[in-house]
Amino acid sequence: MDHSLQPKASLAARLGRGTVLTGGNFVVGQALRFGSNLILARLLFPDAFGLMALVTMILFGLTMLSDAGIQQSIMQHRRGDDPGFLNTAFTLNAARGVVLWLLSAALAWPAAAFYDAPELLAVLPICGVTLLFNGLTPSRIFASERHIRLGRIMAIQLSSQFAGIVLMIALAWATGSYWALVWGVVFTGAVKLALEWLWFPGRMDRLHWERAAARDLWRFGGWIMLSSSFGFLLAQGDRAILGYFFSLEQLGLYNIAWFLAAVPVLLASALNEKMLIPAYRETFESQDTRAPQRLRRIRYGVSATVLGLLAAMALLGPWLIGFLYDDRYLQSGPMMVLIACALMLPAISETYGPAALAKGNARPFFRVTALRAIVQSCLFLAGFLLWGLPGALGGQALAALLVYPAIARLARDSGVWDKRHDALFFAIAALLITTALALHGHTIRPLLLLS
After folding, report:
1. Interhelix angle 332-347/291-324, nearest 10 degrees
2. What's the mean per-residue pLDDT of the chain?
């Protein structure tokens, strides 16, 4: 066992430091993405961003549809620091990476035909190499996350991101082609993997198979895999649907709007992934009566921050787009208003899922995720067919209300449901949505014709 990874500070201290690191990493990372996006938007055309939105959606789909929960298993399992368990996890993850890379190449032709985007024939297999890189992530990265020790992990992420951005901008300036984005993505993944292996301390992985460890990984990971399959619909279903109906240019405009509007939700997701699963696990195991109250304060803080930022995106969206981008991207402004409004309601209950996973309740977590994905995707598609993009995003918001009782039951069974929290923030969200739609209704109405 690698004792360097054992927690030495209290949970409260590690939560505080981890929150600062995760938040700081997110802010700096988004600032880099935003700055590069502004530069690239002037060097490239919207269809380049639409093409990469399709590539990202497909690769993300492959990742989610095959997610065996390796990271979550290490973070919550009692043997999460044991070399035999970690080596088996690494072996499974590496094999998965190879398979996913081959699948990305096999899907290139069908995807190009379905979305009428012949560029995918060459782009998808090349970008698919990043799936192989992800499969080779050292298990000591996940073991460090288990104990909320995130400093060097964040440094690696930011360093690789910066290197990829520099290459993207240089190639975009030299060629004006979408290939700048393609090679930038691949280079980012390669640099990240190299730094993880060469710069991150701890035990080195080796190929190893332990039957007991594999059984535990599959038992927990099987439900995570099913959950992640539907999680793909939750996270990327909008682009999967819109990619069929929209041109690459329209999809690129939507992706620009989503990139800006979804920043608060991505921040919450980063905190959930890095912080809340290990925090819930240690709280459930702790005898400290103050620990649940600390987590309750964290949930309030996350919800208030996310809704506040989403409100800013909804209220200022058209102005921000007009100020930051040229006239080719103006339609992203009202799209940004709708996306931010649609994300408010589901964001309120996002902190409940990590509690179920921390308790090992992967099966009920899967059931709720599946229900959310099916309802949201059906209402998104139905809304689009009836009223265009405003109808689609309105359907997404309605889905959050319809599935809330199932989420509340999952939270109650995990011992973390807070009805006062939810009632308060649902009321605030309703007020913010009404205000944003009333303010920008005249810019949103033309989107009814966008299909």
Report:
1. 170
2. 89
